[in-house]
Amino acid sequence: MTPPEEEGLPPVDAPRTRAPFVVVKCKDCSKEHVVFSRPATAVNCSICGAPLAKPAGGRGEFLGEVVRTVA
Ligand SMILES: [Zn+2]
Fold first, then answer.
1. Which site among 11, 27, 31, 57 is 20 to 30 Å from 42 CA-CA?
2. Ligand 1 centre from 2 Cα, in Å?
3. Residue 19 in contact with residue 59, Cβ under 8 Å?
4. Distance from Cα 43 to the centre of ligand 1, integer Å
């Protein structure tokens, strides 16, 4: 009887964030926005319309400066 292969185990060191929201500062007008960390659609600045985040198959890709996370 052979031991089970380990390749089926989930990665334990995968980077994860516990914060559901991040604060993204618009690079054009410096307005800070609270954005869902896993956006389903693109998020634009409410002031100037610059792109702030876009969906990237899970955690979003942030186009502005991520200032901090919000739990
Ligand atoms: Zn802006």
1. 11
2. 59
3. no
4. 11
CATH of the domain at 53: 2.20.25.100
Which domain, by its residues, includes 65?
21-70
Residue 38 lies in a domain: yes
Domain contains 62: yes
CA 1 to ligand 1 centroid distance, Å: 62
b/e code 2-26 from CB counts within 10 Å (16+ = b): eeeeeeeeeeeeeeeeeeebbbbbb
Q: What is the pTM of this model?
A: 0.71
* Residue 50 alpha carbon to ligand 1 centre in Å: 5
